[in-house]
Amino acid sequence: MDSISAVLSLLKPKNHMFRGLVVGGAWSLNFPATQSVRCYALLSGDCWLVVDSVADPIRLTRGDCFLLTRRQSFRLASDPNEPSVEMAALLSHTLEGGVLTYNGGGDVSGLGGFFEFEGPQAGMLLSRLPAVVHVRNASSKASLIASMQLMMQELREPQAGALLVAQHLAQMMLVLAVRTALAEAPNEGLGWISALADRQLGAAMNAIHDDPRQPWTLISLARLANMSRSAFAVKFKETVGTTPMEYLQRWRMMLAVDKLMNSNDPISVIGMSVGYESDSSFSTAFKRVMGCSPGRYSSMRSGEVVGSVG
Predict the structure, then answer these.
(1) Across the beta sheet with 108-118, what order do the strands follow?
(2) Which pLDDT score, from 0 to 100, does residue 67 have?
(3) How distant, in Å, are the alpha carbons of 18, 175, 184, 232 from that of 70?
(4) What is the residue extent of each domain of the chain?
(5) Beta strands, E only, 153-302
(6) Per-residue pLDDT at 190
(7) pLDDT tens digits, residue range 120-170?
(8) Which of 9-23, 53-67, 171-185 has the highest mean pLDDT?
(9) Could you give the CA distance from residue 40 to residue 53 in angstroms, rounded to a whole number?
(10) Is the model's pLDDT at 185 over the cut of 60?
């Protein structure tokens, strides 16, 4: 499994909602901030995207797609200066997979929605994606639009396996977003994403992802990158934002969390599977990263303990 697949496979979609939109005339719709990843495509016409964290409005034309990876509100509008209407009130009258017509329709059409992920991995993994991923590549746009159309169909007419289909579609959209981010700005501060695209750092990170149980050291990882220890440490920290050892520990904890949430393996077995030979060393590392012991985290996830991590 390649590293992008290994990383994104840890994201498990838990909620999703997709609808169509048809608007006309002068209009501006405000979408509230949520914890979810938002994904939209413009099927006809053109409009403006205004995002809180982005200085200038983004022009969208027919076929453009975009993903929003942060908790932030945004607007879609015929004119950035047009007074906005809250989208939440309008959507309450539209079923999942349905189409909302606003202001008579006829000028602009699109579709989109959101998907949420369970577990702490989402924040760790998505935080290095750009706040807005504007998809312009023709093949990527076609794939995203087809995925969203299929998602809407599954919502309108639920069939056996609908949840699994939705999960795979959500992960596919994220993969396309990561590909787009790498293709358009491979060295623009994308953290682990940029590191995977780097020939030297990528070799070390692929090794971490492929075999987290190995007793990796700064020296052994630098050797894989064909760099001196000091040069490797500096480049890794500058690119990823953490030291190699911190990244290794965090990756091990994300794998451990996934096993705690999705398997019945004993904690001792989980600890060994991610590189810790004793329960105490695993528990100490887990608490340092996650804020609580593996046992407490497992109990919280199963509903035995109420409260937040830490």
Answers:
(1) 99-102, 12-23, 108-118, 37-44, 65-68, 132-135
(2) 84
(3) 18, 16, 19, 30
(4) 3-184, 198-301
(5) none
(6) 63
(7) 666 666 776 778 888 877 787 888 888 888 877 776 777 777 777 777 777
(8) 53-67
(9) 18
(10) no
CA geometry: angle at 280 spanning 277 and 285, to 5°?
Answer: 85
Please tell me the CATH code under which domain 198-301 is placed: 1.10.10.60
Phi-psi region of 229 (alpha: psi -120 to 50; beta: other; left: phi over 0): alpha
* DSSP letter assigned to residue 63: T
Q: Is there a contact between 150 and 165 (Cβ–Cβ < 8 Å)?
A: yes
**The model's pTM:** 0.69
Please name the residues in contact with 49: beta carbons below 8 A apart, sequence gap of 6 or more. Answer: 57, 58, 59, 60, 66, 74, 75, 76, 132
- Give the rounded percent of residues in the chain with a pLDDT score beyond 90: 30
Residue 274: its H or E element: none
SS (H, E, C) 74-129: EEEECCCCCCCEEHHHHHCCCCCCCEEEECCCCCEEEEEEEEEEECCHHHHHHCCC
- Contact (CB, 8 A) for 74 and 49: yes
Q: Which of these, 107, 34, 98, 112, lies nearest to 77 by C-alpha position?
A: 107
Q: What is the DSSP string of 147-159?
A: HHHHHHHHHHS--
Tell me which amino acid residue 257 is: V
Distance CA 63, CA 282 (A): 48
Does the pLDDT value for residue 57 go beyond 90?
yes
**In the predicted model, what is the mean pLDDT of residues 241-268?**
89
pLDDT tens figures, 172-182: 777 777 777 66
Q: For residues 25 and 127, give the distance between their C-alpha atoms in angstroms, rounded to a whole number.
A: 37
Alpha-carbon Rg for the chain in angstroms: 21
> What is the CATH architecture of 3-184?
Sandwich (2.60)
Check if the beta carbon of residue 44 is closer than 8 Å to that of residue 144. Answer: no
Q: What average pLDDT does range 85-113 have in this prediction?
A: 82
